[in-house]
Amino acid sequence: MQTFHDSRLGAYFVMSTDHINDFQFINKLPGLMSILWNQSQGMIDISLDDIRISLQPNQVITATHLQNLEILTKDQPLTSFTFNREFYCVVDHDNEVSCNGILFYGYHEIPLVNIPIMEDPKFKALFQVFDDEFQNRDDIQGEMLQILLKRLIIKITRLAKKQLFGAKSNDSEIELIRQFNILVDKHFKTHKKVSDYADMLFKSPKTLANTFSRLHDATPLQIIHDRIVLEAKRKLIHTDYSVKEIAFQLGYDDVGSFHKLFKKVTKRSPQSFKNQDESEIGKNDQSNGKNSLLPIIGSGVN
User: Fold this and answer.
1) Which numeric CATH code is attached to 171-291?
2) Coil, helix or strand at residue 237
3) DSSP 105
4) Measured in Å, how far apart are the chain's first and last C-alpha atoms?
């Protein structure tokens, strides 16, 4: 495990080739973002927001501090790059990396990205540069590591865009979907209509609908609803709030409206979901589609 820490800023950046064994240390650091890369020859099962995900060799997944991450496979090495906002804020530097709404914060589906065979040597070379830089204990080490991290995020984001949207998309359409996802993540508690977001984006609801119809397997309204339900599930599983309290926190004065939406998306009532035992929660995996906390995106082609 390689660690950079700037005590003046409270900045942390950790690179690990054995995230499973290093997790106890890494997990003590608050507000972390993670890039997890399966460099092993076997499959690694993880749980993210109580969705079971099988991370295949040479696949990458990202997670934020808002998500509940658990490593289920204990006997395979897992590479990770973990950092906090003080080291590199993906929100403040969105104009540099354009990863929000795709890799972090607000994407409708969990971003599971393949590293194609032709890209594999480039990723391994970048990993080696990271490793070399961690040996340089000088005044510009932090800045150099930030540059390398930015490069890594950009490379993964480019792959994600190709695998998510394919050749039929163009940059302006992808950017519209990305900005929509970011806005939904920010405002889903107070804005629940597609027209609200269309106004923020200076687009018509029809333009949004047509763009999503071309490039996405969900409608804008489904993305809003799924984000609301995801937050509800997090609170139902991980807090002691009542269904009524959760409905109010998510912007519903009428608990009946919240109940109706939750049941429409999940096929079960909020109380039934809250009362399920841990073995049932573990069944929320990528094979369950919309009954999971979030569906998994198509993995692309190596």
Assistant:
1) 1.10.10.60
2) helix
3) S
4) 29
